[in-house]
């Protein structure tokens, strides 16, 4: 009998426990039970439901709750703690009911109606660190919730938690800091300041069907998109409770942008007719009202939840690169000296993705400027590793060996700053690949995908690494998945570089030609793809095409020799030797002129 597949998902987990439960029961058993029931009925359970939480189980004096949104979990915890402090104020100090709360964001395993796993265990340990009436959250929660909804948290540093192998950085909120901890409120009519990074509000999708049952589906679409975008640390995403205040209202997108302090708004609609479902989504620049992206999805209704997951994934993977692209376009209009750290990164990525020598030089300057503007934040650090990669791979620096070392060191430093950033982990995995550490590369990129399962750059580079690690069939399938997820991604040239190697490994040179041609269109100033086009055409006996590719290759890299290709990180030496021999046979110089 086939083994049943384990169900997993990423969730915000809240663990709460009553302080001094045994003491309170000894002092007044009946009174404690009645007050606890009243608190649950009138305060705790309604707040949990209102913030989208699900009570997984109760443990006498404690609760375990699952939330789809980190921000909602934190808001719920603080709302309950504040209300309980006020409600219990007239009770003698030694008889007051107070809770400790811990919140973690992590992978959970579904067992019937229960949830288990390290994500749950960490939440329980965090609860034990909280003060009575207070809250402790993991660093991953802190970052995902952008520091907490209108609150300041105290950094407790790395804490060794019982039965948890790795230390966890912990942030604490205490009830006595309630008033002083609140951030200044925005005065009525004032426009909130835009964050440095791309900011977006996802409005509730409009139900166009006239069918009340589709209301839940439409709301679920928007909620899931909010949750998925919130997992990407380089976006600022307005929480559901704020964006859903516009539900059922005629919307002026520019007004929404001003009121919520966001640069972009995503809105959509759901229409059901018979057994067909149509979903429209559009991304809008909140300042100008211009449409940046729009798409329509038509589906036959089979499993409604499968459709919801599929379309949510498609929207996320379309919107994320469009947001980055829009930000890059905005930075082009600014004086480089006036760019913020985030804007430097955005402009730098637009250059580094072109894989050209002059673009790499410009990108280096921008990433170094970002690091100088925001030291210790990680902005620009992992991106700078890509510049070191280009310098090493193409021999643009004085020492290839040193540039490869700098690539690994810079990427490792970026991950040390923030080991929950999927981009930093993705680039570190690419660095390990070119250090011939394929197992470390795959393990690192798997961590990135675990943090953000639909993060196309990680999926595509995983395919490229698999090609180098002598897994061509799996590599081809993985890169194709990434292209399907994000057909306009900035990392496309890197994916195609690996996809070509996979086709070369299995000697499918027809597909290799098509891949190299596509790569040339994406990055016309990059010599690698001309070299690949040369190899594939030579193997197919297309002499004229091979000669043209050779001429283009040497024009882009006049000092190119066969030795330049010996640094390709191929785990299978035979594949690399065959590639080298083809270059020699095709007329690539063996030594510099």
From TrEMBL:
Q: Which InterPro entries match?
A: A/G_cyclase, Adenylyl/Guanylyl_Cyclase_3/4, Nucleotide_cyclase, TPR-like_helical_dom_sf, TPR_rpt
Q: Where is the Guanylate cyclase domain?
A: 12-127
| One BP term from GO | cAMP biosynthetic process
Q: State the superkingdom.
A: Bacteria
Question: SMART domains under this entry?
Answer: TPR
Annotated GO molecular function terms are: adenylate cyclase activity
- Protein name in UniProt: Adenylate/guanylate cyclase domain-containing protein
């Amino acid at each position: 009998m086939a083994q049943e597949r384990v169900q997993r998902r990423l969730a915000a987990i809240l663990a709460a426990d009553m302080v001094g439960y045994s003491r309170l029961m000894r002092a007044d058993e009946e009174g404690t039970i009645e007050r606890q029931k009243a608190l649950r009925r009138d305060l705790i359970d309604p707040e949990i439901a209102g913030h989208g939480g699900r009570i997984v189980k109760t443990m006498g004096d404690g609760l375990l709750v699952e939330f789809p949104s980190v921000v909602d979990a934190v808001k719920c915890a603080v709302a309950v703690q504040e209300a309980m402090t006020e409600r219990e104020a007239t009770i003698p100090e030694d008889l007051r009911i107070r809770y400790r709360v811990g919140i973690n964001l992590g992978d959970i395993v579904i067992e019937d109606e229960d949830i288990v796993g390290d994500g749950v265990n960490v939440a329980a340990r965090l609860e034990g660190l909280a003060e009575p009436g207070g809250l402790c959250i993991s660093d991953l929660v802190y970052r995902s919730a952008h520091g907490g909804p209108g609150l300041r948290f105290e950094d407790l540093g790395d804490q060794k938690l019982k039965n948890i192998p790795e230390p966890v950085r912990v942030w604490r909120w205490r009830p006595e800091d309630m008033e002083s901890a609140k951030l200044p409120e925005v005065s009525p009519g004032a426009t909130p300041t835009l964050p440095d990074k791309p900011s977006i509000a996802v409005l509730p999708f409009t139900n166009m069907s006239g069918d009340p049952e589709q209301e839940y589906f439409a709301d679920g679409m928007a909620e899931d998109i909010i949750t998925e975008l919130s997992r990407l640390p380089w976006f600022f995403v307005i929480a559901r409770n704020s964006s859903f205040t516009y539900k059922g209202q005629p919307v002026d997108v520019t007004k929404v942008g001003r009121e919520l302090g966001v640069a972009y708004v995503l809105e959509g609609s759901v229409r059901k007719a018979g057994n067909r479902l149509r979903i429209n989504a559009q991304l809008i620049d909140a300042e100008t009202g211009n449409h940046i992206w729009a798409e329509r999805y038509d589906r036959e209704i089979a499993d409604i939840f499968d459709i919801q997951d599929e379309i949510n994934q498609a929207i996320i993977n379309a919107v994320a690169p469009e947001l980055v692209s829009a930000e890059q376009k905005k930075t082009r209009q600014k004086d480089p000296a006036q760019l913020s750290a985030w804007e430097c990164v955005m402009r730098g990525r637009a250059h580094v993705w072109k894989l050209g020598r002059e673009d790499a030089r410009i990108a280096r300057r921008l990433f170094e400027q970002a690091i100088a503007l925001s030291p210790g934040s990680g902005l620009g650090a992992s991106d700078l590793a890509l510049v070191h990669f280009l310098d090493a791979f193409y021999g643009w620096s004085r020492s290839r060996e040193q540039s490869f070392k700098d690539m690994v060191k810079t990427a490792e430093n970026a991950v040390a700053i923030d080991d929950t950033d999927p981009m930093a982990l993705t680039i570190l995995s690419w660095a390990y690949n070119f250090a011939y550490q394929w197992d470390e590369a795959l393990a690192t990129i798997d961590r990135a995908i675990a943090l953000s399962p639909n993060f196309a750059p990680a999926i595509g580079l995983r395919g490229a690494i698999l090609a180098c690690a002598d897994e061509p069939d799996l590599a081809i399938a993985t890169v194709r998945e990434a292209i399907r997820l994000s057909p306009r991604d900035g990392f496309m040239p890197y994916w195609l570089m690996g996809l070509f190697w996979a086709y070369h490994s299995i000697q499918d040179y027809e597909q290799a030609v098509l891949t190299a041609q596509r790569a040339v269109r994406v990055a016309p100033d990059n010599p690698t793809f001309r070299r690949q086009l040369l190899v594939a055409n030579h193997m197919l006996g297309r002499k004229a095409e091979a000669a043209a590719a050779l001429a283009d290759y040497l024009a882009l890299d006049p000092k190119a020799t066969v030795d330049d290709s010996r640094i390709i990180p191929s785990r299978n030496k035979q594949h690399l030797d065959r590639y080298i021999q083809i270059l020699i046979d095709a007329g690539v110089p063996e030594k510099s002129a």
